[in-house]
Please model this.
Amino acid sequence: MSLSKVNYLTAKIFMLQQSIINYVYLFVDDVASLEKHLTAGNHTFTKISCILDEVRFSYTKELKASTVKSPIAANEPENLANNTTILNVFRRGWALPNRKITRFSYKQELYIYNIFMKGEKSGVKSSPENTVKEMRQQVDPTG
Model:
């Protein structure tokens, strides 16, 4: 089939490297003939890999090759019995302290609302960090 006979709008170009001859063949044909060629021929496909894949493979290879003990070994039962610091932590407890749930007072809500409305009118909105700093520095005239 010559190139002049091929409809360039429906032609698909595929480049494959053949393993025996190591030449690059250009196929300008439909998908069916490409599939026929792929099933009949012997090919070597080049893996597309990025640096992240190479790092993953090298990391897993290093992990498999390493003989260093894992950091989880400190929690094994025979090591746990000899470790007094872990036992002391368990006796004291490890839960976070209870926090008191508080709500904004009416004055605080009004102050935040005024800052919000000032930002709406001017078009320059205040960041939460700046609002917190301003609230801490604000002095209530009534005490």
